[in-house]
TrEMBL record:
Pfam families referenced in this protein's UniProt entry, alphabetically: LAGLIDADG_2
A molecular-function term among this protein's GO annotations: endonuclease activity
InterPro entries, sorted: Homing_endonucl (IPR027434), LAGLIDADG_dom (IPR004860)
Identification of the protein by name: Homing endonuclease LAGLIDADG domain-containing protein
Organism phylogeny: Bacteria, Candidatus Zambryskiibacteriota
Start and end residues of each Homing endonuclease LAGLIDADG domain: 18-133
Top-level taxon of the source organism: Bacteria
Length: 192
């Protein structure tokens, strides 16, 4: 087992690691607080979702409660791109060395990546959280069929997020041997 994977598994209980990794593959981010120059490499985990996902923010908060010093709260802000006033819910964790470990894995040259190092510990819960977090994405599930994918993640979808699995757009991509179901959006692609 990779040392990084072992450090991840010992840093957080599995239910928290599932939420953290799944969220980082989606909309969450880690904010680096110290890059190890004068002190240990540290970071904090930030969750930020729109008004419609308030219950989902609280679900994540409940999973990570012992790492957080303040309950989620509402903020109002101006979305200049859409010319709208928005309402969001967010919280962040305490700054910890363990989040610094994850930051080193998930961020390269200031950009968030999908680190292959997490594949040995990737779980159905991580996949479900990732699916819930993404507004638009694409997942090619190889020889899986769409219903099997939905059956895999549904047990981990809180009621507040069930709308995410109700009506996705489905395209079939032709390949030489298989026609995998593909959920279509932007920015992300995972092949099975």
């Amino acid at each position: 087992m990779d040392d990084i994977v072992g450090r991840l598994q010992s840093a957080f209980p599995s239910h928290q690691l599932d939420v953290i990794i799944g969220s980082l593959l989606g909309d969450a981010r880690l904010e680096c607080r110290s890059q190890g120059i004068r002190a240990s490499y540290t970071a904090r985990f930030r969750v930020h979702h729109g008004e419609k996902q308030k219950d989902y923010v609280y679900w994540k908060y409940q999973m990570l409660k012992d790492l957080v010093s303040r309950e989620p709260y509402k903020i109002k802000w101006r979305n200049e791109k859409r010319n709208l006033n928005e309402v969001s819910w967010f919280f962040h964790t305490k700054t910890l060395k363990n989040f610094g470990i994850i930051h080193e894995i998930f961020y390269k040259n200031g950009r968030k990546i999908f680190p292959k190092e997490i594949l040995p510990i990737f779980t159905d819960v991580m996949l479900a959280v990732w699916f819930k977090d993404r507004h638009q994405w694409k997942i090619a599930i190889g020889s899986f069929d769409y219903q099997r994918f939905i059956d895999t993640i549904t047990p981990y979808i809180p009621k507040a997020m069930s709308y995410k699995i109700g009506n996705p757009r489905i395209d079939l991509l032709s390949r030489k041997r298989a026609e995998p179901a593909t959920l279509v959006g932007a920015n992300t692609s995972v092949s099975g």
